[in-house]
Amino acid sequence: MARTKTFVCLGLFLSVFGIGNVLGDDYLPKAKDITWSSHNFKTLLSWNPIPTNYSYTVELYGTGTEGERNPNCIQSMSTECDLTKLFPELKRTYYADVLSETLPGFTVDLVEFPYTRSESFCPYTDTLIGRPDFEIKDSEEESKITLHIIDPLSAIYHAERLLNMRDIFKEDLTYRVVYRKAKSTGRKIQTTETNHIELEVDRGESYCFSVQAYIPSRSRDMQLGDLSHVKCSEARQPSILDEYGIPVLAGTCFIILLLIIAVCAMIMACCKCCQRAKEEEKGKPLEIV
Known about the structure:
CATH architecture of the largest domain: Sandwich
CATH topology of the largest domain: Immunoglobulin-like
Distance between the termini: 178 Å
Structural class: alpha+beta
Strand order of the largest sheet: 12-11-14-15
Number of helices: 4
Radius of gyration: 41 Å
Largest sheet: 4 strands, antiparallel
Number of strands: 15
Mean pLDDT: 85
CATH superfamily of the largest domain: Immunoglobulins
Shape: rod-shaped
Low-confidence stretches: 1-24
CATH class of the largest domain: Mainly Beta
């Protein structure tokens, strides 16, 4: 009986002095500014403000699924949660609830904790694709260069290995190649549906290349991935044929041939003159002194 009277008095005291609101919404502020950040399927959820005397719990929901929780994001003091491993279907649309809860070991008399819901997120269409790598290979024909593109790795594990972008996007993944002459600012753009592309180039010129993922099925602002580092091919030493061309070389050869013929004709003419002079010299009678 004495215990009951104590609780009643405590309740009246809290009501009179307004302390009862400490356990309401002011005590558990809702999360604000919830944002998704996803790069190569490494997906983080972040929000504000930093908690003081309360914690946050994150629940992830997809179409037809119950709330999933990352053990590291339950009654946590952090304002960021890694949800990378909680997406069973990458093409499904998800949203997250950030619940404001009491600290571990504390309780509060609420039907449900206050929460804020994020915007929807689909890993397949919303993750940013990082820069790919590529190798430059000279073709047998000096007027062509081949690029071999290496798919960026994702943060998704399957069968104990990291999947790359081709594993995930398959035929949806294409690559956009931007290239130019090393000594020029004018650029050209080509696309390829595979990891290889052969480009027409001028003989003997050095070219610079950069590559990025391109997914036409996405919304326009999410179609292009990060641009790769620029790589340049070595300038090939042009041959005489590449340098001057067949017409010039043919003309030069013709002129040289004419000069040879002219020189030979002059030599033959000189020889005939000399021979004639000798014959005339022999035919003259000897003078008697």
